[in-house]
C-alpha cells in the first residue's frame, strides 16, 4: 500500500523555500538598520567643565520641531518631544551650549516631573537633571567632539536645542 502525496504546503521543498525567504527578509532588515547607525569617532576626549543656569518660567516651550534642513545658523540639534529621545550623532566645536525647557504640569500633584539630559561619546559628562512643574535653563561646555544626547522625561512637553557658540 502506498501513502498518498502530502498536500503542497507539507512538502519539504515548500518549507525550505519559506525558511530561505524568511531568512532573506530578516537579513535585509538587519542591513538596512545598520545603514542608519552613527559610529562615534574613536579616541575623542570627553568634556572638561560645565556651567549650569536654571530658571523657572511660565512660558510654554515651542510646540514644533525644526527640521534639520532649516536649522538656524549655529544650531547643531534641536528637538521637541514628550517622551525619551536620542539625538543623531553630531560634532560640536570647542564652545557650545544646551538650551532646554520643559512643561511637567501633568506631574504637579507629585511635586513635579523628572527631566534629564545625558550624553555619550565626547558628551558623556553631560548631566542635566531637574524635577519641577516647569523650568528652563542652559548649560555651557568648553570642549567639543562627537557623540549623542539622550533626553529622558515624563513631562508632557520638552524642548532641547544644542547651539555652537
Task: Describe it.
The protein is mainly beta and 165 residues long. It has a domain at 50-164: Jelly Rolls (Sandwich). It has one helix at residues 12-35; strands at residues 50-55, 75-81, 85-86, 90-92, 96-103, 113-121, 127-132, 134-141, 145-153, 157-164.
The termini sit apart by 87 Å
> What is the average of the pLDDT values?
79
Order of helices and strands: HEEEEEEEEEE
Helix content: 10-25%
At CATH level 2, the architecture of the domain at 50-164 is Sandwich
Structural class of the helices, strands and pairings? Answer: mainly beta
Shape: elongated
Radius of gyration: 24 Å
Q: Report strand %.
A: 35-45%
Strand order of the largest sheet: 1-8-5-10-2
CATH class descriptor name of the domain at 50-164 = Mainly Beta
CATH fold type of the domain at 50-164: Jelly Rolls
Question: How are the elements arranged and paired?
Answer:
Blueprint: H1 12-35, E1 50-55, E2 75-81, E3 85-86, E4 90-92, E5 96-103, E6 113-121, E7 127-132, E8 134-141, E9 145-153, E10 157-164
Antiparallel strand pairs: 1-8, 2-10, 3-9, 4-9, 5-8, 5-10, 6-7, 6-9
